[in-house]
Amino acid sequence: MNRQPSPHYQPMDPYPETTRLLVAVRGGDRDAFDALFARVYAELREIAHQRLRIHQSGDTLNTTALVHEAYLKLAGPGADVADRAHFLALASRAMRFILVDHARARLMQKRGGGQRDVPLELVQVAADEPVADLLVLNDAMERLRRMSDRQCQLVEYRFFGGLNYEEIAEVMGVSVRTVKREWVKARTWLYTYMQTTPA
Amino acid sequence: MTMPPDEHWARVDALFGEALDLPAEERQAFLEGACGDDARLLDAVLSLLNNETAAGRLIGDGVADFAGDVVASLASEDGADMTGGMAGPYRLVRELGRGGMGTVFLAERADGEFDKRVALKLVKRGMDTDEILRRFQFERRILATLEHPNIARLYDGGATADGRPYLVMELVEGERITDYCDSHRLSVPERLDLFRAVCAAVQHAHQKLVVHRDIKPSNILVAADGVPKLLDFGIATLLGDDAGNAPHTRTGVRLLTPDYAAPEQVRGEAVTTASDVHALGAVLYELLTGRRAFQRRAATDGDSTRLLRVLRPSAAAGETAPDGGDPAAARSTVPARLQRTLRGDLDTIVLKALEEDPARRYPSVQQLLDDLDRYSSARPILARPAGAAYRAGKFLRRHRGGLAAAAVVLLSLAGGLTATLAQARQTAEARDRAEQALAEAEAERDAAEEVTAFLEGMFAAANPFATSPARMDTLRIGAFLDRGADRLATDLADRPLVRARMLGVLGRAYRSLGAYDRAEPLLTESLDLYREVHGEEHVEVAAGMNALGNVYLALERPADAEQVHRRALAIRQQLLGVGHGDVAQSMNNLASALQNSGRLDEAEPLYDQILEYHRTRQPPDSAAWADVLNTRMMLAYRKDDFDTALMLGRQIHEMNVAMFGETHPRSAQSLNNVAQVLARTGATEEAEPLLRRSLELVREMLGDEHPNVAASVGNLASAVHRLGRLDEAEPLYVESVSLTRRVLGERHPALARALVNYASLLIDRGQFERAGEFQRQALDIERVASGPSHPNVGIVMGSLGTTLCRQGRRPEAMAMFSEALQILQGALPPGHSLVAETERRAADCRQ
């Protein structure tokens, strides 16, 4: 199997581009962030799709798997450890966006495509996906961000990205112990905000 | 690191972090020191600490699986293009909805084997198909036994060609129970009826050892014909929704929507029938208040927090609904009235079902159902609200170590316990002792209540006024009660309180059966025991007096009744304050006693107070309210004010029918009263069919041998007599006399009435000798039972005067009339028809 990229086509192997973008993001390049984000977003959906086609029964498709797989695909196995940490952070945000977008869409769908509520003549099982709750959580995260950007990011990594404490410590450049404590604090704040958000 | 824009927030957050680093028992002291006199800061950090555990429960370490599922469904447009596709022999017609477990389709058999349309649940991808199918094979036999009109059936199950499991269920067309109730503006009693049907279905399943595990409004649909159906019974089990997995790996859904799931379910602990009780409690809460039991509450300021706690339904009903709608209007009432309806028993029932600790909930759905039945038939419920003593004890136990200051504040609110416990707090040791004593007292009380509750439940069946029985075998019940009374004669000698309560239960049951003479000694003994245990000034003593007083009323011993009810009223006023329902009840009973004594003028002023109480505090459709109106109606009747009596009588009857249905002893009685008032005003033709219907009902429900039957027969006899059908009336009169004699004995005023009425027919037939004989017997009874100056004595004398006159014994007759008039004028308001009637007869005789 020849895995060498052909010079005549767009690179089949995307690693160099991802790595470049990651480096740029670390350097604070906003456009690079957007470009990378779009790639990660698309990749996450693609992975999910492929996995479903193969449908490995019993093998649950979870965020951690998705995010890590996306990383492997986009950045390749030889990527820089620091890049990996940043990639995972980015993927976490992408996951959050995907989920929140989805929740919003479902909520609109529930409300009859944005029109007035139309009572269903037939309701067998109502959709009980936690769309509203996810949106409430998302709002709470925005409130938390106004107070502490760091805590909000931590929630993104842990809750949406499924990163473990060590990975988060790496991304944020703090000790694992601090991550654990901040995580407890952050989710308590979120919970508190969620209680005070009118349902 | 950006500096947080809110200084206060940053301080709270920092202190919160520092406190988290400390062992739990050191946090309080540390924070008190660190916050100094900044109470707001301390409050904010403390409430965060309070929230920490709940936050961990709600926002788990990850929503990994949930997120993955959403992404997955997003990527594959899961199910959306399945419409028109096949699942086994079923064609998917269209999507009905999506749930955490997958997508539900309207489906039909493609092979036309059945033309029935079904609901087909296509399980989402990512679940273990083999495992689900294996469980399905195992569970389907059990689920197949769930045949209940309120449970949607599970028909079939299998796997699609690409390996996705599906389940085939009965198709239910309807609205969620909450939506249905709102769109039909069902009242609270109507909602309770619907909910009880749901409970019965769940109880049925529990008896077959099937737990639902996922009861919520979207799983309870009400069809257009008003029949509720539970969906997805056993499905949660089948799909292994929570079998042995850590909570967050099941569904992120649960983590974020704990609205109906029981706490132990959210924690991933064992799920039992108690979890279904909790879920039913949450559904009932929503049905009654329009709000979820566990709700996010708006805080007063941005930093303070609120525990995720359950508001009392009556309080929740007073808040604006989350959607801005008016929960009261959706229940066909107004907010104040809705709150009044929920306050008390319904609050207690709902909160008992929603107890966090499964052991404190109703032990089974049946018991929840029983309490709802008790509530609906206006009997006392068995659940007890967590009282101040209980709460104080629980609080002390929870905060054994610290928070002494808070404990003192709470104790000062805890009423009777304050003194004892405030002294005890001086040393930790003493506090522990007090705590133990409290626990023991609580245990003793609980045990006693359990025994009583159990037996009371057993005996409830014996009380025809308590339930709405189709047919009561009163003889069998009588025998049952007799056995109980025999046993009580020797049993429970060492448990005076339990014994007192049991005697009370038996006595009240005998009274309902019309066996007043059997009820009296039991209730007397019960009262004596209460006095021994509690002393004189106690609510239970007053309740015992009330029960005994009511038997005196039924025995028509108004002097005894007055004395006992007066005493009960005094005790209740002193202990409960004037604005209490029991005080109003005592007043009403005292008013009855005064009326029966013929002291109408003394009875009347009591009504002003009673009416005021009920106007402001009681729901207008309660049995207690009907009782008050009934006494008021009797007063109007006795005062000759038939218009008022008729109006009230009709109102009471309508209330009774609405509350208990037509086939209930109360309704039969009120129908009889309406008819009797009609007959008294001369509308005898109109009255007759009502009297007949009432007699039929009362016989059906109370059996042939009951004082109410005797009274009904007597009333019918009089009506038929007045309509001129003497031959038909006579056997009825005879029956009323002999039945009254059998059920109430020789000395009861009811026998006097029966005799006098029969005598009036004998006069019309010219049988003056027998008539006079009966009248003299009646006079003898009334003089002893009601007292020589009671109007009843005057009435009997008046009729005896008529007989004497017809016999040509004028001087004796005139003397009799004159004495009768003297009594009647002294006892009745001026211009009363009985006075006029007697005067007329006297005048006729004189000529």
Q: Would you spell out the secondary-structure blueprint of this structure?
A:
The complex is a heterodimer of chains A (199) and B (847).
Chain A (H helix, E strand, L loop, with lengths): L14 H12 L3 H25 L8 H13 L5 H30 L20 H17 L1 H12 L4 H8 L3 H20 L4
Helix pairs in contact in A: 1-2, 2-3, 2-4, 3-4, 4-5, 4-6, 4-7, 5-6, 5-8, 6-8, 7-8
Chain B lengths: L6 H15 L2 H12 L3 H20 L5 H13 L9 E2 L2 E10 L2 E8 L7 E7 L5 H16 L9 E6 L5 E6 L4 E2 H7 L4 H20 L12 E3 L5 E3 L4 H4 L8 H4 L1 H5 L6 H4 L6 H17 L23 H4 L10 H4 L4 H8 L2 H9 L11 H12 L11 H11 L5 H8 L6 H7 L3 H33 L13 H17 L5 H17 L3 H19 L4 H16 L3 H19 L4 H16 L3 H18 L5 H16 L3 H19 L4 H16 L3 H19 L4 H16 L3 H19 L4 H16 L3 H19 L4 H16 L3 H18 L5 H14 L1
Antiparallel strand pairs in B: 1-2, 2-3, 3-4, 4-6, 5-6, 7-8, 8-9
List the keywords.
heterodimer, A: 199 residues, mainly alpha, 8 helices, globular, B: 847 residues, 3-stranded antiparallel β-sheet, 9 strands, 64% helix, disordered N terminus
Number of strands of chain B: 9
Q: So how many helices of chain B?
A: 39
Report the major sheet of chain B: 6 strands, antiparallel
- Count of individual beta strands of chain A: 0
Rg from Cα of chain B:
34 Å
- Proportion of helical residues of chain B: 55-70%
Poorly predicted ranges of chain B (pLDDT <50, ≥5 residues)? 1-5, 74-80, 241-258, 296-308, 386-435, 440-448, 450-464, 466-475
What best-fitting shape of chain B do the alpha-carbon axes yield?
A: elongated
Helix content of chain A: 55-70%
Mean of pLDDT of chain A:
65
Oligomer: heterodimer
Total DSSP helices of chain A: 8
First-last Cα distance of chain B = 117 Å
Order of strands, widest sheet of chain B: 1-2-3-4-6-5
Average per-residue pLDDT of chain B, rounded, comes to: 76
Specify which chain pair forms the largest interface.
Answer: A-B, 64 and 85 residues
> Per DSSP, what share of the residues of chain B sits in E-state strands of 2 or more residues?
5-15%
Q: What structural class should be given to the helix and strand makeup of chain B? A: mainly alpha
Rg of chain A computed from alpha carbons, rounded to a whole number of angstroms: 19 Å
Shape of chain A: globular
